[in-house]
Write the structure tokens for this entry.
Amino acid sequence: MSDDDLVTAESRYLMHTFKRQPVELVRGEGVRVWDADGRELLDFVGGIAVNVLGHAHPDIVAAISAQAATLIHTSNLYYTRPQVELAERLSGLGLEGRSFFANSGAEANEAAVKLARKWGKQNRKGAYEVVSALGSFHGRTLAMVAATGQPKYQKPYAPMPDGFRHVPYNDIDALRAAISVKTVAILLEPILGESGVIPAEPAYLEAARELCDRENLLLIFDEIQTGMGRTGHFYAFQEYGVAPDVVTLAKGLGGGVPIGVCVAGARADVFEAGDHGSTFGGNPLACAAALVTLEVIEKLGLVEHAGVMGAYLEHKAHVHLSAFGTLRGRGLMQALVLHDDIAQPAAAAALDLGLIVNAIGDRVIRMVPPLIVTDADIDRAVSILEASLDAVSSNVASPGVVRP
Ligand code: PLP
């Protein structure tokens, strides 16, 4: 099939939900991927914060190959060892508690919201409303679109399911004012990801915790993008010293194999047999992938490494990119916030020059590379970004000039 045929067939046979970049990726290794023409690209998107160990990490390849040859799937009607071992491991990583496994971030958040609603029946006279932030992103199921504080995702599907209320992020007064007898939980990302990598103020998360304690509510952190060591802590909430009652993880958890989890501490853990379920959730293949991903993160010290590399990226960006914008974020979850509306053409130019980054809107370039990224990779990425921004801004400055 030729390149043109691929694009035509994609358009003909796939629903048009994604606007794809003009590249066909066929292979990956470490922080690099190759396109169908054999061109090497530096991957600073990493499957949108998923490929924490990079591509084709030998330990992941070995673990999933071995598990695939042994037992891929059984359903949750039976005990399987990788699932129990993974839950035990997760309980020791920042929120002691029990796990419910799903297949994606949206499903992990669905579990958290269902848990909160059941908890509300038992502990808050049937309260069911979840307060979340404007600009948040919690997934694409109907309920998670309702939880997501971005009207553009909701509009085509109105009316939305009831029970969600949105407040401006980092606004403590607005959060307080939104709490009523109907409220059962506050759901927050410690760093807003999809709307441009906006970290919470420490006082905001502290206030959310205090509110939940005082008003008897659950605090749920969505760490689907921020978790797995990405910010220089296993969970971003650990930097803030604010612990939730429930936390969700997905994206990087399986190192590329789909898996999500909702972990609940004892206070929130009210699910009983039959309350919730999933055919695939926590199957041996996905859990083996997650176990080896966690093992390698620990073995290589990748949580600390993410913090060090994040600081290096900030430094390099400050030195080389400050004419174009400033970096915002934590660890290896960073956004270059541009002075001009050139994010889209700059990301396209970077792709041409061999770097994959993600443009969010017109002003933000997001970088969420694999946690194994090195300072040499960062040097190269920053140099490509600088060249791309330079080329694009020169075109903006003198639109009549066609640059080679
Ligand atoms: N929550 C956050 C913070 C996310 O960034 C995402 C995905 O981008 C999700 C939830 C949804 O995850 P998934 O696409 O796996 O359903």
In short: The mean pLDDT is 96. The pocket of pyridoxal-5'-phosphate is lined by residues 48, 104-106, 109, 137-139, 189, 193-194, 222, 224-225, 250 (CB under 6 Å).
